[in-house]
Amino acid sequence: MQQNELQKIKDKKTGVWLIGAYGGISVCVIAGAMALRAKKCSANGLVTELDIFKKIPLLPWDNLVFGGMDIRKYSIVDTLKELHTNASVLSHDMITDYNWQISEVEKNIYPGIIVNCGKAITETSDKSFVKDGHLSSLVAYIQDTLEQFKKNNSLDDIIVVNISSTEPEFFIPEQYAAYEGMKSAFSSNSYEKYPASVVYAWAAIDAGYPYINFTPSQGANIAGIKQLAIERKIPYSGNDGKTGETLLKSVLAPMFLLRNLEVMSWEGYNILGNRDGLILNDPENKKTKIRSKANTLDKILGYKPHSKVSIDMVPSLNDWKIAWDFIHFKGFLDTPMTLQFMWQGCDSLLAAPLVLDLIRLLEFSHRHGEFGAQTQYSCFFKDPLECDEFDFRLQFFNLINYVSSKEN
Amino acid sequence: MQQNELQKIKDKKTGVWLIGAYGGISVCVIAGAMALRAKKCSANGLVTELDIFKKIPLLPWDNLVFGGMDIRKYSIVDTLKELHTNASVLSHDMITDYNWQISEVEKNIYPGIIVNCGKAITETSDKSFVKDGHLSSLVAYIQDTLEQFKKNNSLDDIIVVNISSTEPEFFIPEQYAAYEGMKSAFSSNSYEKYPASVVYAWAAIDAGYPYINFTPSQGANIAGIKQLAIERKIPYSGNDGKTGETLLKSVLAPMFLLRNLEVMSWEGYNILGNRDGLILNDPENKKTKIRSKANTLDKILGYKPHSKVSIDMVPSLNDWKIAWDFIHFKGFLDTPMTLQFMWQGCDSLLAAPLVLDLIRLLEFSHRHGEFGAQTQYSCFFKDPLECDEFDFRLQFFNLINYVSSKEN
Amino acid sequence: MQQNELQKIKDKKTGVWLIGAYGGISVCVIAGAMALRAKKCSANGLVTELDIFKKIPLLPWDNLVFGGMDIRKYSIVDTLKELHTNASVLSHDMITDYNWQISEVEKNIYPGIIVNCGKAITETSDKSFVKDGHLSSLVAYIQDTLEQFKKNNSLDDIIVVNISSTEPEFFIPEQYAAYEGMKSAFSSNSYEKYPASVVYAWAAIDAGYPYINFTPSQGANIAGIKQLAIERKIPYSGNDGKTGETLLKSVLAPMFLLRNLEVMSWEGYNILGNRDGLILNDPENKKTKIRSKANTLDKILGYKPHSKVSIDMVPSLNDWKIAWDFIHFKGFLDTPMTLQFMWQGCDSLLAAPLVLDLIRLLEFSHRHGEFGAQTQYSCFFKDPLECDEFDFRLQFFNLINYVSSKEN
Amino acid sequence: MQQNELQKIKDKKTGVWLIGAYGGISVCVIAGAMALRAKKCSANGLVTELDIFKKIPLLPWDNLVFGGMDIRKYSIVDTLKELHTNASVLSHDMITDYNWQISEVEKNIYPGIIVNCGKAITETSDKSFVKDGHLSSLVAYIQDTLEQFKKNNSLDDIIVVNISSTEPEFFIPEQYAAYEGMKSAFSSNSYEKYPASVVYAWAAIDAGYPYINFTPSQGANIAGIKQLAIERKIPYSGNDGKTGETLLKSVLAPMFLLRNLEVMSWEGYNILGNRDGLILNDPENKKTKIRSKANTLDKILGYKPHSKVSIDMVPSLNDWKIAWDFIHFKGFLDTPMTLQFMWQGCDSLLAAPLVLDLIRLLEFSHRHGEFGAQTQYSCFFKDPLECDEFDFRLQFFNLINYVSSKEN
Question: Please, what CATH class does the domain formed by C245-346 belong to?
Answer without folding.
Answer: alpha beta
